[in-house]
Amino acid sequence: MTTTFAEPITRTRNTSPSTATATQGWAVQDLAAPLGALVTGIDSRQPLHAEQALALKRALRDRHIVVLRGQQLDDAQYLRLARTFGDVFHPPADVPVLASDPYGGNTPAIVKVSNVDDGVLGHHELSAHSDHHWTPVPSSGSFLYALEVPRVGGETTWVNLAAAYDALDSATKHEIDDLQLITYNPFLRRLKPLASGVFPHYRTPDIEPLTPFEAHPLVRTHPDSGRKILFLDEATEVEVVGVPAAHCIALIERLRAHLLQPRFAYTHRWQVGDIVYWDNQATLHSRTAFDPVERRVLKRISLSGSRPF
Ligand SMILES: O=C(O)CCC(=O)C(=O)O
Ligand SMILES: [Fe+2]
């Protein structure tokens, strides 16, 4: 089973800014799950103190996702919080991404992830992915801020890709350590659907490659922690560079089945006011479907990253 916990177990931090009183205490605690930390006592309407910002950066490096509850931010405050950790992600002009114009470019800094009004992603299930994986310089991390949530469904699950790599047997590690993987842009595939209407999980020689594309290491090294990451998602069209498809289809299927094991996962049940900040370099996230009659409104900000190595 996937781990679903809101309650922290380990207190990793219990300190206050220098001016703090007892009521201004804040803490960062591990969730009782294979990844995730819960931050309490921080009101992110105010700029973070240096110690708080550093504690969140450390928690992200070590636990891959950081959860803040009970926040109430306007867009400027939300952007200020996100920019504490980096620049907002903008794709190249010819690379379409979520909420950009159909052919790329003009991507809003704040994306409304919502099944109502002018939002994107509707109410359906989403397979596990890392935001902007298919771009030349993928995102370092994303934030989601919950404004309205359904009573049932619409949970988001994160997968710990560092733990997934560590748990591979040594023969598999040896086999994949130096492979390069192209993850084709699913927004391009929507613009150029196959005659069959199928969204392939692996590009076979009979399928013309989508362009532009970029190869990244299948096993990347995390730029902050140095840990090895199995940088592969659940269902996007991929291709291992320079190895016949016939061999790699089975390999990729096996790796995908491996990383989707619930022992690597944390599922978040959203409450209004939650902000989750996650590392796109070390995690995947997926979402369960929910009743379209219910409203679900979140706002996403993605940060720019660096070329995977
Ligand atoms: O709606 C969700 O829970 C996740 C949506 C998503 O994948 C994203 O905003 O990047
Ligand atoms: Fe996403």
Short description:
The protein is 18% helix and 27% strand. With 309 residues, the protein is an alpha+beta fold. Strand 2 and strand 3 form a beta hairpin.
How is this fold's topology laid out?
Blueprint: E1 8-15, E2 26-31, E3 37-40, H1 50-63, E4 65-68, H2 75-83, E5 111-114, E6 120-121, E7 126-129, E8 141-148, E9 156-160, H3 161-166, H4 170-176, E10 180-183, H5 186-191, E11 215-217, E12 219-221, E13 228-230, E14 238-240, H6 245-259, E15 265-268, E16 275-279, E17 283-287, E18 297-303
The structure holds 2-oxoglutaric acid (AKG) and fe (ii) ion.
Residues 129, 131, 285 line the site of fe (ii) ion (FE2).
Spatial sequence of strands, sheet with the most strands:
1-2-3-4-16-8-18-5-6
User: What is the helical fraction, as a range of percent?
Assistant: 10-25%
Shape: globular
How much of the polypeptide forms β-strand, as a percent range?
25-35%
Total domains = 2
Give the CATH H-level superfamily of the largest domain: Clavaminate synthase-like
Tell me what the structure shows:
The chain has 309 residues and is an alpha+beta fold. It folds into two domains: 8-155 and 268-303, 4-Layer Sandwich (Double-stranded beta-helix); 161-259, Clavaminate synthase-like (Double-stranded beta-helix, 4-Layer Sandwich). Helices cover 18% and strands 27% of the residues. The chain contains six helices and 18 strands. It has a nine-stranded mixed beta sheet, covered by helices on one side. Helix 1 (50-63) links the parallel strand 3 and strand 4. The longest helix has 15 residues, at 245-259. The chain is globular, with a radius of gyration of 19 Å. Residues 1-7 and 9-23 have low confidence and may be disordered. Residues 113, 121, 126, 131, 142, 144, 156, 285, 287, 298, 300 line the site of 2-oxoglutaric acid. 2-oxoglutaric acid binds next to strand 8, strand 17 and strand 18.
